[in-house]
Specification:
The complex is a heterotrimer of chains A (293), B (331) and C (243). With 293 residues, chain A is mainly α. Helix content of chain A is 74%, strand content 3%. The chains are: A mainly alpha (293), B mainly alpha (331), C alpha/beta (243).
């Protein structure tokens, strides 16, 4: 008989995972929705965020270094994203989608090895900032305060992002660009700036989540590939390009992952892709995407 | 009539000579050359089979390695565990890959573009997961080491070949199998069926409205491509002296895609050039550094911006510049 | 020959085509006209199987083709040219019509013959009849707009249709090109005994060649008959001229 407190603990663990997934997948979904590019390198940005955060903490020390590290990492990755979009990605917009995908894959290869060269292959980690050390007792299980912080931050970003997309004029332009970029260009909007802006925001989110995950998971080569696969599944469940789809997709997948491992220890490697295949077969546009048939 | 013979003479010989050159390597080259030659031949077949989807039909698959892997495992298991003769194992590998391609393809062709690509990837990873976990049949994460060479004693009867070692003999077998397979694929692409595929690639909607059942043809292309990938995989399992789940993992799909782009997707022989280049580059670079992925990524970037037509595209462009307007075999 | 019975189509609540009924007799040349957004293209898509109607039926030569897949409908004798040029850009002009000929002759599943040599005669004949014989080996995408439209027609004709639907066949053409295109169309229709249904914005074209005109407005047919009767119809005048 499984203890309720254990179940609740798994549920909370799933929530934490879901929040990280949401931060990552929202960037991926955003870029796809607006620019029709599926950015394989998104996971690499996540990984770079983690490494940059670690490096900054090494420089500034663990007591006061965490928050500047997170900020530095997110901004650093955002800057990298801006450079990549303007110099490389921009040239390929007119060409077939395959070439854009291959470019992002090339970036995965390059960034992955660059990280290996810079930081080696051993596992690295960052300790939690002292303010958020410790945990809260909840229904028989302990929720680390740090995790609670991440959940709150993730929700805040979700709400903030939603408001920005629906209420602000910039947000309206972004949504218009997602629907019909040619029309938007014809109306005089600076589509190029919108694309760069979206890519930068998406990279920022990736870097941010990479930095924030360092106290919870160790930084290793291969974390880029692992996370991008999970992000793919989340956006497939939720629907490519849909904001709320990404949110619910993250929640669902986070919990499925959390409880699935209880039931089938070797859950992840097979079931994850089986789930993705099933959804693509039955309902490719996911929960909230636009029907494509 | 004379001009047809003349044009035939101009077009055929280089292929024939290349084939002869490949066959002569065991006698004129080193053991290492034979090793590279086998690798190039197998990867060429794998890459050309993918190009049937990408270049000819316009279907971008990220999961092509699934059929390569199935071919490798079927052939390897039959030969190692059941001691089956090579010819049986090879045919079984082709059929196994074809059957799998039929099942997976049925679902994949109902989708287009990015969704199609993602489903091919998902299926490919499912195949990998099964290979990785099914210890009893596939050896799980240990894989299937010591896949035996086929029984090639009969080759001793042939005068010049008698003195060759087993890996040289297998190399010859592989080159012949690959050459035959390429010839068949070339024929298929040049047939009315191939014309239907290029019509689908050029304009899917219009193809439907000239009476083409687009999904049926795409599925057929998927199965044909998968079959030849399976044959390549079978050869690889033997060449590699073992089949391991690593070879079914998704970066392999990306690698063969890069071979196709590198060589030029619009040309039949493009993927062959791409495979050869990538194999040779890999051997060279990995002897100097462990950062092969970095080099590969940079090559890919250079390719995307400077040489969109790939190697053969570049050569064709140069030839046109110099005034030679040969009719390159189109994919 | 072509009968459309009370066909309707709505998209998420928006009624694009509402209970449209239309009959075109064999060998007749008919036009569907109407302001932008009247639903003409949607109606065409419903007839050719690109969209499935919510209600109603479409029959060709008495056979029900409602909701069949486009490739099946094509095989039953309906040809179509599209509003935005829809050719096979990187194939040559000859290969464009050859593909259609091979498909029509059911030779698609042939994995073995060399396609280069096939359908040469019919292909050349077809290209000659639409005036593109000289450009047979040019890459289709490099053709001028007018020539691409001609090729478009050629591809549709290659499927040997009984009914030909033409979506704005003279869109984007100059006055002289339009004149030539319409003359060509009329000649081919008469030579092959085709039933023609087309949509057009150019009223001069419509009235010069159509034997029967249907007027659509906001998804409905508001007038249907000979050119003279349509020209005199008060409802039509109100919709087009505001009087």
């Amino acid at each position: 008989m499984v203890e309720p407190s254990l179940l609740f603990g798994q549920f909370l663990g799933g929530l934490t995972t879901a929040m990280f997934l949401f931060l990552i997948a929202s960037g991926l979904s955003l870029v796809f929705g607006v620019m029709r590019v599926l950015n394989f390198a998104h996971g690499s940005f996540y990984m770079l965020g983690a490494y940059l955060a670690w490096q900054t903490v090494q420089l500034l020390g663990t007591t006061h270094g965490f928050w500047p590290a997170v900020l530095a990492a997110a901004l650093g990755v955002a800057l990298l994203g801006a450079v990549i979009e303007r110099t490389l990605l921009r040239q390929l917009y007119g060409r077939e989608e395959l070439y854009q995908l291959l470019l992002t894959y090339a970036l995965v290869l390059i960034l992955g090895d660059a990280a290996k060269a810079a930081w080696g292959t051993r596992q690295l980690s960052v300790s939690r900032p002292p303010i958020l050390a410790g945990g809260i007792e909840l229904l028989g299980t302990t929720l680390p305060t740090y995790n609670l912080f991440v959940m709150l931050l993730g929700s805040a970003i979700a709400v903030g992002g939603w408001l920005a997309l629906t209420k602000s004029s910039a947000g309206r332009m972004v949504r218009a660009a997602a629907l019909d970029r040619e029309m938007l260009g014809a109306l005089g909007a600076n589509v190029g700036a919108i694309y760069t802006g979206m890519f930068v925001v998406s990279s920022f989110l990736a870097g941010l989540s990479g930095a924030l995950v360092t106290p919870i998971e160790s930084i290793v080569p291969g974390m880029d590939v692992e996370i991008i696969v999970e992000a793919f599944i989340v956006v497939v469940i939720g629907g490519l390009g849909s904001f709320w789809g990404t949110f619910w997709g993250s929640l669902i997948y986070g919990e499925v992952l959390s409880f699935g491992i209880l039931v089938f220890p070797s859950f992840s490697i097979f079931s994850v892709f089986a789930l993705m295949a099933v959804i693509l077969i039955i309902r490719p546009w996911g929960l909230f995407g636009r029907p494509i048939r | 009539m004379m001009s047809r013979i003349g044009s035939l003479c101009v077009r055929l010989p280089w292929m024939f000579f290349a084939f002869l050159a490949m066959l002569s390597i065991p006698w004129f080259g080193s053991r290492y050359d034979v090793f590279l030659g086998t690798q190039i031949a197998i990867d060429s077949l794998f890459a050309v089979s993918l190009n049937l989807l990408v270049g000819t039909t316009g279907l971008v698959s990220f999961g092509h390695v699934a059929y390569f892997g199935i071919g490798a495992y079927v052939c390897g298991i039959l030969m190692k565990t059941y001691g089956a003769p090579f010819i049986v194992a090879l045919l079984a590998a082709a059929m196994g890959a074809a059957a799998c391609a039929a099942v997976f393809g049925y679902f994949c062709v109902r989708l287009t573009r990015i969704y199609f690509a993602m489903l091919t990837l998902a299926f490919s990873q499912i195949v990998w997961a099964i290979c990785f976990k099914w210890d009893d049949v596939t050896g799980g994460d240990q894989g299937l080491p010591d896949v035996p060479y086929p029984d090639l004693h009969w080759m001793s009867a042939i005068p010049a070949i008698g003195e060759l070692r087993i890996d040289d003999r297998f190399y010859l077998v592989a080159v012949v199998v690959v050459a035959l397979s390429l010839a068949v694929m070339r024929r298929i692409i040049g047939s009315p069926f191939g014309r239907m595929l290029t019509a689908i690639r050029e304009n899917r909607e219009r193809a439907a409205f000239i009476g083409v059942n687009v999904r049926a043809y795409e599925l057929a292309a998927f199965v044909v491509a998968g079959t030849f990938a399976g044959i390549a995989g079978a050869l690889f399992g033997i060449f590699n002296r073992g089949v391991f789940a690593d070879y079914v993992y998704w970066p392999k799909s990306a690698e063969v895609m890069i071979m196709v782009i590198l060589g030029g997707i619009q040309y039949f022989w493009g993927p062959v050039a791409g495979a050869a280049t990538l194999v040779l580059l890999n051997q060279e670079i990995t002897s100097y550094t462990e950062y092969w992925p970095l080099v590969l990524g940079v090559i890919l970037v250079v390719l995307l911006y400077a040489f969109p037509g790939g190697i053969v595209g570049g050569i064709a462009g140069l030839a046109r510049l110099v005034g030679l307007n040969g009719s390159r075999v189109r994919a | 020959m072509l009968e459309v019975h009370r066909v309707s189509k709505s998209f998420n609540g928006f009624l694009a085509v509402a209970e449209v009924s239309l009959t075109v007799a064999a060998g007749q040349i008919a036009a569907v006209i109407g302001p932008n957004g009247a639903g003409k293209s949607t109606l065409f898509n419903l007839i050719t199987g690109h969209l499935r109607p919510n209600d109603g039926r479409v029959l060709i030569d008495g056979r029900d083709i409602t909701g069949l897949a486009p490739h099946r409908i094509c095989a039953m004798g309906i040809g179509r040219s599209f509003q935005r040029t829809n050719i096979f850009p990187r194939l040559t002009v000859f290969e464009n019509v050859q593909a259609a000929l091979l498909a029509h002759q059911g030779r698609g599943p042939n994995f073995w013959s060399r396609s280069q040599a096939l359908c040469r005669g019919e292909g050349e004949e077809l290209l000659a009849s639409i005036g593109l014989a000289d450009q047979a080996h040019d890459v289709a995408g490099t053709l001028s707009y007018g020539n691409q439209k001609q090729l478009e027609l050629g591809i549709a004709l290659a499927s040997d249709p009984q009914v030909l639907l033409l979506d704005e066949p003279t869109a984007g053409m100059s006055a002289s090109e339009t004149h030539e295109a319409i003359a060509l169309l009329g000649r081919i229709a008469r030579e092959r005994g085709l039933t023609l249904l087309f949509t057009e914005h150019d009223m001069a074209v419509v009235f010069s060649i159509a034997e029967k005109i249907a007027v659509m407005h906001q998804g409905r047919i508001i007038a249907d008959g000979s050119p003279a009767s349509v020209r005199a119809d008060s409802e039509v005048r109100r919709v087009y001229l505001g009087r």
